[in-house]
Design brief:
The complex is a heterodimer of chains A (176) and B (66). With 176 residues, chain A is an alpha+beta fold. Chain A is 44% helix and 16% strand. In chain A, helix 5 runs antiparallel to helix 6. The longest helix of chain A is centred in the last third of the chain and has 21 residues. In chain B, helix 1 runs antiparallel to helix 2. Chain B has 66 residues and is mainly α. In chain B, 30% of the residues are buried. Classes of the chains: A alpha+beta (176), B mainly alpha (66). The interface between A and B is medium-sized, with 31 and 20 residues.
């Protein structure tokens, strides 16, 4: 169960983001929510915020029925302990008080999308084929290299392998 | 995913070289071995997951953070 998120715990002084957790009268988040736990000097927190903006829009506090909360771990040590936060940034998805999934550390848009999809209960097909941005570029680069090698050496198997790896890097992109 | 990005790039580089050698420069059993090894390295490098690491419960990927 997600711990209480009292209003004073939800304000991150390092962030200009609006923080608007869905609160019941007891302070427990209700419905679907995504929680981002950050630290002031975390190197990847800024990049994951930009990915969240890309996925959900800038300055949002609720999108597709999913509420967003940003928590500064140093300001809320008890909450960070209750959520078993080991590193920042950590992005967690909750629905009806139950943690569904989390992403720890640096990540790409696909990682953020996966967490939001989990919170909103989006189609599992998107989650299943979702890959990280680093994997996408690694597979795309590999596919391009194999395609070029196949074209230069006139080996059809290298060309086919290149096509397969290129497709594996972009298939989930096509799904969206 | 249990492979670090550096290891993934290394696997892909070696795998691509083995594939090209297997399809072009080598013959016979050496070509077959090179292609199979190249396929294993490129697939595990592209996916970022090594089944042997998984069986041994080890890995080179670290969780990043603050």
């Amino acid at each position: 169960m997600v711990p209480h998120l009292l209003p004073s715990q939800n304000r991150n002084p390092q962030s200009n983001w609006r923080v608007n957790p869905p609160r019941s009268t007891t302070g427990v988040p209700q419905g679907s929510s995504v929680v981002l736990v950050t630290t002031p000097h975390c190197p990847h927190c800024r990049s994951i915020r930009s990915h969240i903006e890309a996925v959900a829009g800038a300055g949002f506090d609720q999108v597709h029925g999913v509420s967003f909360v940003e928590v500064s771990a140093p300001d809320s040590p008890d909450l960070a302990t209750d959520l078993k936060i080991k590193a920042a940034p950590t992005l967690l998805a909750f629905r009806d008080g139950e943690e569904l999934t989390r992403h720890v550390g640096a990540g790409g848009e696909s990682d953020v999308q996966r967490v939001f999809d989990a919170a909103s209960g989006a189609a599992t097909s998107v989650r299943r084929f979702s890959i990280s941005s680093e994997s996408r570029w690694i597979r795309t680069g590999l596919g391009a290299v194999l395609l070029a090698a196949g074209a230069i050496t006139s080996v059809i198997w290298l060309v086919l392998l290149g096509v397969v790896f290129l497709a594996s890097g972009w298939y989930d992109h096509v799904l969206r | 995913m249990n492979e670090a990005n550096v290891e993934r790039i290394g696997r892909l580089a070696v795998g691509v070289v083995l594939l090209i050698l297997g399809f072009t420069a080598l013959n016979g059993i050496l070509a077959v071995i090179a292609v199979i090894a190249g396929l294993i390295l490129t697939v595990t490098g592209a996916v970022g997951w090594c089944p042997i690491y998984s069986l041994l419960k080890i890995g080179t990927r670290k969780v990043t953070g603050a």
